[in-house]
């Protein structure tokens, strides 16, 4: 494409609302424009990159045996009522009605629609397994859209859904998608890692997020430096300690202490001259309307997601003052397990504590020398805390590192969550009716593009890896009015085009500096610089955007050299992908 004819509005100014580099660069490089909060248009350059990601996704999904469909974005309320999500989904679901007052939503995801499709047309085990996918626009009314297309309200997603007859089949479908995702992100040229993720109330290990490593990422995760364990911090396991039995001989006499104006762990620890690890914090949660006390050691933090999953709650919040008063008989800040009127669950960190300090369920009082078994009871111990810097890998006891990432994909074993409520059943070999087992698998297309920029940029702009580059080559004549420059550049342009190479010809009558700046900003991997001085000796210069390396090539060799560079760049991802499943990230 000739630059002079392109719709490519580049800019030097950093937009004031763009906090992360990918957002800034996507605006500056003329890839996207904001229409309104969380809703963006893709301009030609941006859309080319989107199409590249989509193409890789399509090829790998097809290779994995999935079949492409295209489902409606407007979905009737009745289907969502049937699955139970009309109420449950909350405000991210954009609901509206038509002229007949019938209610609809804009699809934030398509479990309901796909399950409806499949239940009507799949009747026997012979039609299973099936995996159907689409690449389509989703709408989620995010509370805080931010970071450009990374967390927006309207975005493109590849979503796939697998349907299997039994558990073993569902496991195999999951493994296939897991492998396909590794291939996809390798081919995109990304540094990524699959990590164990929270799978909500479904439980089990059947959820992995594919994280692109980036400091700016919203997700915190831990990775072991010895084994392959990696997990989202929300899910990261804290190992279970060995139970050390204490005897009554070790137990000191229970004491009530007057602690005026002491509410926080720090205040309590100062006041009583004990360490936070000698105190048990008691948090009262409201789990689906019922109070529940969670005990945890004073120096640890409760992981609400673990608590929610453990209790199997749909909604979990910290209890309000009224619920705390009812449960403990005291205002906030004095809760303790002794004589409390709720269920009591404790984190493993409390399991071996003796003679600890805790709230007395009485305003301005705490208790000293509390012992479980004598002074209070605990219904059960569980892993309910946030993993911290001092923790070790729960698998191999190796050291763990805290890193950040951007979730670009998610593979999830759904079980029968939707097939049960929507009655997606089939007849098995014995003619018995059985419920299908499902999996769902998402990739954020725009987010993948943004994540790629987060990993590939420098002070001058984007540095595209070959597989996602909107164009592979830009030809920059230094001065279009000098000697044979334009003619030579034009010939290279025509030759490259004839070979099907994606090329921009910067034919603008601009200063070389301006053209170089734009080329750097939009991040084209290879630049051919055509200048009169080199032309006299029959040469042009080839510059690599990433390494900054420049080299002179004779005119007649430049096209084949470019082709070689592009092929190498494209093959790199494919080579890591298909060499016997060898990927930078092994399965957990
Ligand atoms: P998040 O935790 O980031 O909100 P999610 O768990 O809601 O993500 P899924 O429902 O698993 O995401 O969606 C599949 C994929 O869609 C995600 O892995 C992500 O790449 C993409 N995605 C989700 N929400 C957004 C969004 N608001 N903007 C852009 N992409 C998104
Ligand atoms: Mg979300």
Largest sheet: 9 strands, mixed
Beta-strand content bin: 25-35%
Q: What's the overall average pLDDT, rounded? A: 93
Rounded to the nearest angstrom, the distance between the terminal CA atoms is: 45 Å
Radius of gyration: 30 Å
Strand tally is 31
Q: Within the CATH hierarchy, at the fold level, what is the topology of the largest domain?
A: BirA Bifunctional Protein, domain 2
Number of helices: 15
CATH architecture of the largest domain: 2-Layer Sandwich
Compact overview of the structure:
The chain has 588 residues and is α+β, with helices and mostly antiparallel strands.
Please tell me about this protein's structure.
- The longest helix is centred in the C-terminal third of the chain and has 24 residues, at about 555-580.
- The chain has about 600 residues and is an alpha+beta fold.
- Mean pLDDT is about 95; it is low at about 580-588.
- Strands 3, 7, 8, 9, 10, 11, 12, 21 and 24 form a 9-stranded mixed β-sheet that branches. Strands 16-14-15-17-20 form a 5-stranded mixed β-sheet.
- The chain has 15 helices and 31 strands.
- Helix 1 (about 20-30) crosses helix 11, helix 2 packs across helix 11 (about 445-455) and helix 6 (about 165-185) runs antiparallel to helix 15 (about 555-580).
- It folds into 3 domains: about 15-235 and about 400-455, Bira Bifunctional Protein, Domain 2 (BirA Bifunctional Protein, domain 2, 2-Layer Sandwich); about 250-380, YbaK protein; about 465-570, 3-Layer(aba) Sandwich (Rossmann fold), CATH 3.40.50.800.
- The two termini are about 45 Å apart.
- Bound molecules: adenosine-5'-triphosphate (ATP) and magnesium ion.
- The site of adenosine-5'-triphosphate has 15 residues, from strand 8, strand 21, strand 24 and helix 11.
């Amino acid at each position: 494409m000739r630059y002079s004819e392109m719709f490519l509005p580049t800019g030097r100014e950093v937009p004031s609302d763009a906090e992360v580099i990918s957002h800034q660069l996507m605006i500056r490089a003329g890839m996207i424009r904001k229409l309104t909060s969380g809703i963006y248009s893709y301009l030609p350059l941006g859309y080319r990159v989107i199409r590249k990601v989509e193409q890789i996704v399509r090829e790998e999904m097809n290779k994995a045996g999935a079949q492409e469909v295209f489902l409606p974005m407007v979905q009737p309320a009745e289907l969502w009522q049937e699955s139970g999500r009309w109420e449950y989904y909350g405000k991210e679901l954009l609901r509206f009605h038509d002229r007949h007052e019938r209610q609809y939503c804009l699809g934030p995801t398509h479990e309901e629609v796909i399950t409806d499709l499949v239940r009507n047309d799949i009747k026997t085990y012979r039609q299973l397994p099936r995996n159907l996918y689409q690449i389509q626009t989703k709408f989620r009314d995010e509370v805080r859209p931010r970071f450009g297309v990374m967390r927006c309200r309207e975005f493109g997603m590849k979503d796939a859904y697998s349907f299997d007859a039994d558990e073993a089949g569902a496991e195999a479908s999951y493994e296939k998608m897991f492998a396909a995702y590794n291939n996809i992100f390798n081919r995109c040229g990304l540094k990524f890692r699959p990590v164990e993720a929270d799978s909500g109330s479904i439980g089990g290990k059947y959820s992995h997020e594919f994280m692109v490593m980036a400091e700016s990422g919203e997700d915190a995760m831990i990775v072991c430096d010895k084994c392959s364990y990696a997990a989202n911090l929300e899910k990261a396991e804290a190992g279970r300690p060995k139970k050390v039995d204490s005897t009554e001989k070790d137990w000191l006499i229970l004491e009530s202490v007057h602690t005026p104006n002491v509410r926080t762990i720090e205040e309590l620890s100062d006041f009583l001259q004990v360490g936070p690890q000698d105190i048990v914090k008691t948090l009262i949660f409201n789990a689906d309307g019922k109070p529940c006390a969670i005990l945890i050691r004073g120096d640890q933090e409760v992981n609400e997601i673990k608590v929610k999953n453990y209790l199997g709650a749909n909604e979990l919040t910290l209890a309000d003052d009224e619920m705390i008063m009812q449960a403990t008989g005291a205002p906030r800040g004095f809760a303790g397990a002794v004589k409390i009127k709720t269920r009591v669950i404790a984190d493993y960190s409390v399991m071996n504590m003796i003679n600890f300090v805790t709230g007395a369920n009485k305003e301005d009082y705490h208790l000293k020398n509390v012992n479980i078994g004598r002074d209070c009871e605990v219904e059960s111990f569980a892993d309910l805390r946030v993993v911290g810097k001092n923790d070790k890998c729960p698998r191999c006891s190796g050291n763990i590192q805290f890193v950040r990432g951007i979730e670009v994909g998610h593979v999830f074993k759904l079980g029968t969550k939707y097939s049960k409520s929507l009655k997606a059943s089939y007849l098995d070999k014995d003619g018995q009716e059985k419920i299908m087992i499902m999996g769902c698998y998402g990739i954020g297309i725009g987010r993948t593009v943004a994540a790629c920029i987060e990993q590939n940029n420098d002070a001058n702009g984007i540095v595209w890896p070959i597989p996602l580059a909107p164009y592979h080559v830009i030809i920059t004549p230094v001065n279009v009015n000098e000697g044979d420059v334009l003619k030579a550049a034009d010939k290279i342009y025509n030759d490259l085009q004839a070979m099907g190479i994606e090329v921009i010809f910067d034919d603008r009558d601009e200063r070389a500096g301006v053209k170089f700046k734009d080329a750097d900003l939009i991040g084209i991997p290879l630049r051919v610089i055509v200048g009169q001085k080199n032309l006299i000796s029959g040469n042009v210069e080839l510059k690599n955007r990433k390494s900054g390396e420049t080299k002179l090539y004779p005119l007649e060799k430049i096209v084949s050299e470019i082709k070689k560079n592009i092929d190498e760049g494209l093959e790199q991802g494919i080579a890591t992908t298909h060499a016997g499943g060898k990927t930078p990230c092994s399965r957990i």
